[in-house]
Each structure stands twice: as C-alpha cells, then as structure tokens.
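go over both lines:
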Amino acid sequence: MLYRKAIITDVEPIHALITYYADRGLMLARPRFMLYESLREISIAEDQGLLTGAGALSIVWEDLAEIRALAIAPQYTGQGIGSRLVNMFIDEARELAIPRVFVLTYQQGFFEKHGFKVVSKETLPQKVWRECVNCPKFPNCEEIAMIIDTKL
C-alpha cells in the first residue's frame, strides 16, 4: 500500500469514492471544484495504482485543523487504511505546530479509537462553520464534532 499526497489525476477517483458514501448518507458530498481547490490538502492510499482511500487535513485557524472527507474504498475497509491516514494527518498537524485537530463525522467509534473526544459543535470557532451554511443539512446537522489534542 502506497500513501502519498494526491495529484490532479486522483480527483475523479476521489470524487467517485466520496459520492459512493454520500449517496448512502454516510458522509457529506463534495463537489469536484472543492476537491480541485483543496488538492494540496488531500492524501491518498493506493494499491497497484488503484485508489483505496483518501482524506484531507485542512487548516482552519492558527490552532486548529480539520480532517475532512475521509473515505476508504468498500473492498478495502477493515485493513487499517483509514487509521493510517488519520495518523498521517495528526502527524502532519504536529509538524505544522497545530495543537488541535477536529472532525465532523458520522463514525464516532472509529475516531474514538484514535483518541478523539466528542465536543459540542458550539465550542468550535465560527471559522469551522464557513462551509456549513452551504450544506443542505444546515442547521439540522447530524454529524458529531470530535477533537484531539496533538501535543505529545
């Protein structure tokens, strides 16, 4: 399994993967333009040239980053790919001296296994909500806010 930063030709497979889960109500959809705009934030896992997982670490503020759009190809779930990507993002946040990383997720148990704790959405800065107002589920968001302290 190869883990690397995404490149432009990864956008379509990433979009297809996210759409697969979004169509099933398991994650929020992402339009292609968002993936192109945030390409430098995205990391992927691939197996012999096939996309097996993807996600992004997005800097929100001086002390806060978000793991976004984490998705693993259905035939590759349970193999530790999601865990490896999450750990990569936490390490990246540490390298950038960002002390906290949060997620908005439907997969509470997965992130709890990685040390994330549930917090009230209201405790996160307003910057967190810059995209939420455009979401079709706003203001009745069902995602769970979770955060981890990245300091060693």
